[in-house]
Amino acid sequence: MSFVLCRYRRMMSSSVAQRRLRWPAPAYAAIALVACAFAFVGLARSNYWADELFTVYVIGGGDGLAGVWRRALTDVHPPLYYVLLYGWSRLGGLSEVWLRLSSALCAVLALALTARVLWRRFSPAALGFALALVAVSTFWFEQSQNARSYGAAILIAAALMGLTLRLRERTPATGAFPWGAFAALFALGLAGSLMHFYLLLLTGMVLAWLLPVPRLRVPVILAGLLILAVVGGYTWLLLHATQQDVDKTWYRADVHFFWSQTRIARKHLAAAGASWALTALIVAALWQRWRGGRGSLGARVPEGGRHAARLALFVLVGVIASGVLVSCLVAPSYSARNVLITLPFLCALLAWLYEAAGPRLSGRGGQLAAALLVVAVASGLWMCSGRFVERNEPWRSGAQFVAGMPGCAGQQIPVMHPYKFGPPTPQYRAFAERQFFGHYAPAGMQLRAWMPNELVGRHRVPELTALLAARAQQAGSGACPLLAWAVHDLDKKSAPLLAQDLARAPGIAPARVVMQTFERARRRSTGWQPVEDGFVFYVVPAAAPGAVPADPGPLVAMPAGTLGKREVVTLLPPAPRQGTVDRFGVQDWRDGTLQRQDTVSTPQLFCDPPMRADSEIRPNAKRPGCAAPVGASR
């Protein structure tokens, strides 16, 4: 009897120990499942942002697939995503819910497929940690509700990872050739390369990983050349058809830009608590490597996990290096978002890191460390509160405000052309009017897109100058006071400069310019804070001499939390010996409270350089030809 009791106690003790060793896995699984559930919450809470509006333009412009093809050639991305989303839109329309639902499904399936590929290669706790950290990452949060190609791209990347591992490890030296797996790899590589150019780089890396397998070498080379030929042909067609200036976009090809985007990618992979967890594991790995010597980390990882981690590291480094090379030799394209389509491979590296340096639960110290890691990663779930707020550029609220402005019904609505998105050609101006500003605007609104230098009179357009001057002269009379509506390519730093330049534009003074801001939520750590984004500029009468400063008040009643501050800008009379410098009185108002009152001086400008995608809203006064000639006055 004593023998049986002793044996029973051992079994119970072993069972408890095993449960302790496994307990972080269910916790991490719960974190990932909650994040996945929130991918389907609030799909329509945020309006489309600029890139999504371009997606709607490509797939919703009529003429079937032929029209989709023509419009896709105006972009800088391959066409397959648009073709697939066009088919999806035929089932449910172009609403935010329906189009974003496809991205949510792809993002969730990408996590599920990654889990399937890495299952049994890592312990449940290590795999759970990796999946949970990815599920609460900023990148996954954003792309799971973004009607762009990134959700589908990471799903294809997960499939490519699984097929590559299978072919590398299971291709026999003799016997039947794995035609099924290889054909799937080729088809997915070609499809991915025609969906996102960085999937072409990723496909090249996984094909290169298979070259050491003798039986795969020739098929891999032929497949790579065929994919490269197809994508190269489309790229040639795209570069000759697109209206974008691919060398003058927001992308750059310099060391500082590459480094900053890599840092952003790191931040978008792990933020706040998840970042602390990742940093702690990296420090633990370095400490263990220093104490245990070479091989001490890999010894704790199963062989299948080591294979997956080596592939993941090879692909990640290869995509980064080739992305930098393509940016320098072909066209700038390196960005945090593009690099992070390797997310399934990063998941393998995260699982390896936890396996190699994560806590062991045999003691209280390990139990405590494991609990702290779970709490740190779980803190990222607070980001899910962003599903209930407006996170994108306020196209919808801006359109509601402008539509409600007194006296503006049936009048021209000047809008600032998003010049960083597309060049100021007649086609792109019409696109901005219809697809950007017009998407949420009431039918019949007379939108006209103007460049910033045209709005402020540096580049004179008599029709526009006369219109804005007439509105300034009629300020306070009930006539339409709108000077400009701007959303994209303007932020809280550049918008006040545009307000000042409007205040000194021909015919505006002595009327004052009001810059009404709109608010949206921006991620900060794992939470959200309101930021100003989206601006409407309009005129109010000049203040009476000696009048007490007063808030002009909201011109249009809007829902709570929509409107931000109002900045009132007045061009002041020139001071003695002021020279070629303009002075502005600036007041910031919010809810009837004066938050700031200041006087700002800025040099007059005597130049009108062409505005391109890399131009600032106002030319630098030190630019040759912009400074005032000796004795000049304006």
UniProtKB/TrEMBL annotation:
InterPro entries the UniProt entry points to: LipidA_mod_glycosyltrf_83
A GO MF term: pentosyltransferase activity
Q: What are the protein's UniProt keywords?
A: Cell membrane, Glycosyltransferase, Membrane, Transferase, Transmembrane, Transmembrane helix
Note the superkingdom of the native organism.
Bacteria
Q: How does it sit in the membrane?
A: Multi-pass membrane protein
Compartments annotated for it: namely: Cell membrane
Bilayer-crossing residues are 21-44, 97-115, 122-141, 147-167, 179-210, 216-239, 269-288, 308-331, 338-354, 366-384
Region: Disordered; residue ranges are: 611-634
Q: Where is it predominantly found?
A: membrane
Q: Does the keyword Repressor apply?
A: no
Keyword Transmembrane attributed: yes
GO CC, alphabetical:
plasma membrane
Q: Name one GO biological process term.
A: response to iron(III) ion
By what name is this protein known?
Answer: Glycosyltransferase RgtA/B/C/D-like domain-containing protein
Organism of derivation: Pseudoxanthomonas winnipegensis
